[in-house]
Amino acid sequence: MTKTGKKLTPMMERYLEVKSQNPGTLLLFRMGDFYELFHEDAEIAARILGITLTSRDKSSSNPVPMAGFPHHSLDSYLYKLIHAGYRASICDQVEDPKKAKGMVKREVTRVVTPGTLTDDALLDPHENNFLASIYFGKSDIGLAWLELSTGRFLTSNTTAEHLVDELARIHPAECIFAEGNTALQNAIGHLDTMLTERPSWSFAQDECESRLLEHFGTKTLEGFNLEQGTPSITAAGALLEYVQETQKSSIPHINHIEPYERGDRLLIDEATRRSLELTRTIREGKREGSLISVLDETVTSMGARLLTDWIANPLTSLSEILRRHDSVEELSQNPVLCSEVRDQLAKTYDLQRLTARIATGRASARDLSFLAQTLALLPMLKAKLSGRKSELLQQLEAGIDLCAEVRSDIETMIIEDPPLTLNEGGVIRPGFSEELDELRLLSKGGKEWIAGYRNEEAERIGIPNLKVGYNKVFGYYLEVSAAHAAKVPEHYIRKQTLKNQERYITPELKEYEEKVLKAEERAIELEQTMFNDLRERVAKEAPRTQQTAEILAQIDVLFGLAHLAMHAGYTRPEMTEEPVLDIRESRHPVLDRLQPSGEFVPNDVLLGDPYGRVQIITGPNMAGKSTYIRQAALLTLMAQIGSFIPASEARIGIADRIFARVGASDELSKGQSTFMVEMTEAARILNSASERSLVILDEIGRGTSTYDGISLAWSMTEFLHDQIKARTLFATHYHELTELTQTLKQASNWNVAVHEQDGEIVFLHKIVEGSANKSYGIHVARLAGIPDQVIQRANQILSTLEKDHIDDSGQTTIPPRPQKKSSHQQLSLFGNTQHPVLDEIRDLNVDEMTPLAALEELYRIREQLN
Ligand code: ADP
Ligand code: MG
Question: So where does this one cross the membrane (predicted)?
């Protein structure tokens, strides 16, 4: 009953029932050829999808808002809903409407959420799509993450301190956690991931463990190297439950779970990951312009996803790194092999996601045909790889399972280019099944009989333009034009009168029609059964095709790195356990690619014995300091994933961690980074870096007043130098810090060479030893468009500062201003345009700041505007 007391139709009753069983999702309710949404869902869908909002029951006083789209457009509309941050339940008709007695039965067949996507149409082929689960144990936090479209399932235990870094590394599309954990929501809310609360019973420890045991069909989890009772098991169990609930199908391709070993991986925290722009740029959040966009020369989507994984998890084991370098070296010396193999790889389909679709029973005939086509490429690939010298390539070659029976099973049964659906049949090869061939003959024979019958009738009754047609309502019919209507024999039964035609059926026609249709129907049913059997047989081999898929991905990444090394002129770095960096004529991998060839000025990076552990790099803004220090970090990271690097030669000491921090005023990522954030991040470095770490600091201390900032930067550098002994690159425009080298033995000054002529300066982008003799800040401010009056005044203050430094009271003796205007003098440098940054400028109270600080502030804002 509705509020108005009107009785609901059975359909709407079913709708409301299903809706209440699937809270938190948009319900797409199949009605005929459409998916419909009602009430609030309809309003949301209309807004996001741009479809028309109408209403059901328009005449009543209480119409129900409604919106819908044709069922065949489901994928494209789902894509938009999911990417707009919604979950959707798909409610389908689960019985044939033709056979249904009464209302057609409807059930939710799957729930689609960002972390549980499996359809190619909804997934980015080049990106992993992880679902993560977080469980707070007594002391540790359990994490589990799954790529449903490939079946990769991992777990680890972590601490509150590392949780955000871990999640940033995994980069899940969706995270599940027990309801009511607002602390967690606050902690990870800024990550680009959908947060899904689950009932707390879903995280019950014992049930979680038995759920995993039942799924994997094992008695213990020790075989997977999982320790009993750890929080990660609970997280994994809850994750599995969520997947089972949303998929509503079996998930046999998830056939193992691995503990993630952090020990032999280079640790990169969230801030560093972001600041080094490994997979996304800071400003625009795009892949283009990030490290991966340069490194990715893969030709398959499996390879592209694995490369993302390698970049997120660089190695720290010398022997592991050498194995990859050996392979890349061998391949890069063999360009012919390289291009032949890459040509073959490019023809493969996404074996990982195909396998998962087959295992979950969602694969089409076309998918099986793609699988066979991919398997058909393996013998050639294996042959090309045989006889390689490097150990890793030998291992990969040996691991390729040709799955020959699977391939021949599919090839003998499925036609070459099968249709997408089984609805019309025509998927199974002629000659494969006698029974099927007979049925097909019968249906074909029937059709031939009908054609012959038309010819006979046309002649017999003298209607040359007599036509045969077919429609769903009354099947085969004969069509007579109005002009000949008088000639129609009496036993013809009229079914329909159109403007210029009449349509008739005859008993003979009906008799054959039934033969045709029956045969056709049985043929299709038979094809479906045979196809399902085949799919089940192939699904049983999923572990084998999955293993081969993983190997193809590795081969693709290694060949891609070799290709890159050859074409971008990279060299093999020598790796060592000693904490050194000795990279000659190195280039920034991304800028080198973006700038016209030859324009990037190569630089040496010399750190560790005998050059000293700490470099202080000074120089004016825009000189190239940030570029230089990032370059050092990126090249170290590239070497540790197994890549060659843009340099003439290099000796790289393996880092256990890389830290990159950017001073508050330089970091624009989230719009408003504060000094507090800057200091929190700096604190983490000082608390967790080791002698084997590489630390790059960019303008740290800039988010506060000059003297505060200098003092903090000063003491942090001392600490890194004396206590931690990490290799450190510190870029700063605080010229004062160059004096540190007088007391710190392992610290040295470097600066960016500048050519000065007639008051104009040219940046040479060359890093040279020694400290910069001037900061040129005011000069840069002039280039940036700061009014002359401000520049002149700044120059005046600067010369006083340089002469006097600070007086006894701690105050600078700034000369008085030439004239004083209103106390709330506003800077109208940028006119009256609407812009958040401009508001910030208008709010600046220049009188309360030192002129130098005001100038700095202005320059900072000006930078933000550019
Ligand atoms: P800083 O940190 O000193 O202010 P950046 O490192 O941000 O300067 O560099 C400013 C710009 O100078 C870069 O965007 C780049 O275009 C250019 N640049 C930096 N280093 C080089 C180099 N080695 N060769 C060529 N151009 C460079
Ligand atoms: Mg900089």
Answer: none
Q: 567 near 641, Cβ under 8 Å?
A: no
621 labeled part of a ligand binding site: yes
Q: Do 414 and 372 form a contact (C-beta atoms < 8 A)?
A: yes
Could you give the count of Cα atoms lying within 13 Å of 727 in the half-sphere of its Cβ? Answer: 26
- Distances 278 to 275, 628, 695 between C-alpha atoms, Å: 8, 16, 16
Kindly report the length of the chain: 866
Check the annotation: does 622 bind a ligand.
yes
Task: DSSP for 591-643, please give it.
Answer: HHHHSPTT-S--EEEEEBTTTBSEEEEE--TTSSHHHHHHHHHHHHHHHHHT-
Pairing between strand 493-497 and 501-505? antiparallel
pLDDT value at residue 834: 45
Do residues 661 and 696 lie in contact, with contact meaning Cβ atoms separated by under 8 Å?
A: yes
126, 230 contact by CB (below 8 A): no
Q: Does domain 10-112 have CATH number 3.40.1170.10?
A: yes
Encode burial over 578-587: b for 16+ CB neighbours within 10 A, e otherwise.
ebbbbbeebb
pTM summary value: 0.82
- Point out the residues of the chain with pLDDT beneath 50: 1, 665-673, 806-810, 820-835, 837-838, 841-842, 845-851, 854, 866
Q: Are 90 and 135 in contact (CB under 8 A)?
A: no
Nearest atom within ligand 1 for CA of residue 698: 2
Query: Which residue(s) pair with 658 in the sheet?
Result: 268, 694
Return the structure tokens found at 190. 């800024």
Dist. CA 711–CA 730, nearest whole Å:
14
Assign domain 574-774 to its CATH superfamily: P-loop containing nucleotide triphosphate hydrolases (3.40.50.300)
Report whether residue 621 contacts ligand 1, using a CB cutoff of 6 Å. yes
620 is in an annotated binding site: yes
| Ligand 1 centre distance from Cα of residue 215 (Å) | 54
- Give the residue, by CA position, lying nearest to ligand 1 atom 12: 624
User: Which atom of ligand 1 lies at the shortest distance from residue 767's CA?
Assistant: 23
Positive or negative CA dihedral for 662, 184, 236, 75?
A: negative
**CA separation (Å) from 496 to 261, 477, 480, 489, 504?**
73, 10, 11, 16, 7
Pocket of ligand 1 contains residue 733 by CB under 6 Å: no
Identify the H or E element spanning 576: strand 574-576
User: Does the C-beta of 625 come closer than 6 Å to ligand 1?
Assistant: yes
Atom 25 in ligand 1: residue holding the nearest Cα: 600
What pLDDT score does 17 carry?
94
H or E element at residue 54: strand 54-56
